[in-house]
Design a protein that fits this description.
Blueprint: E1 6-11, E2 26-30, E3 45-49, H1 55-68, E4 75-81, H2 91-100, E5 103-111, E6 119-126
InterPro entries: SAM-dependent_MTases_sf (IPR029063)
Region (Disordered): 12-33
Biased composition (Polar residues): 18-33
Length: 128
């Protein structure tokens, strides 16, 4: 996969077809996050990794989550570095973009091996 592409694993909800363990799973890859799903489709869970490396990608990822997280039930987990050197993105830039779109961002985990860039797992929910 090209580093400019973003890969999202999307898990909307359990199917209601008699199998309580079945999950409707979709994978989408796109360099334009706003274009990967129909505008009106919402999801319970969105997993994203390496989608916040520039200010523009932070804004696009926040917009995607605002459009596609199910209100009051949806949650996204975004794995990111605290800062992407030379390109300006990272967890703080994403938090700023998300807050402007009425998304709540909490730190679910911090991963610091003392040798490389600090990584964070961010939990994102819709405020309204």
């Amino acid at each position: 996969m090209d580093v400019s592409e973003q890969h999202l694993q999307i898990l909307p909800h359990k199917q209601q077809h008699g199998n309580d363990n079945a999950i409707d799973t979709r994978t989408a890859t796109s360099s334009k996050p706003g274009s990967i799903t129909p505008v009106f489709e919402t999801f319970n869970i969105v997993l994203a990794s390496e989608t916040t490396y520039t200010i523009q990608s932070c804004n696009q990822t926040a917009l995607l989550l605002r459009r596609h997280l199910k209100p009051q039930a949806g949650v996204a987990y975004v794995a990111t570095k605290r800062y992407y050197f030379g390109v300006g993105g990272g967890s703080d830039a994403f938090r700023e973009a998300a807050t402007k779109l009425q998304l709540r961002v909490d730190v679910a985990g911090v991963y610091d091996d003392g040798k490389s860039n600090i990584r964070e797992l961010l939990k994102v929910t819709r405020v309204c």
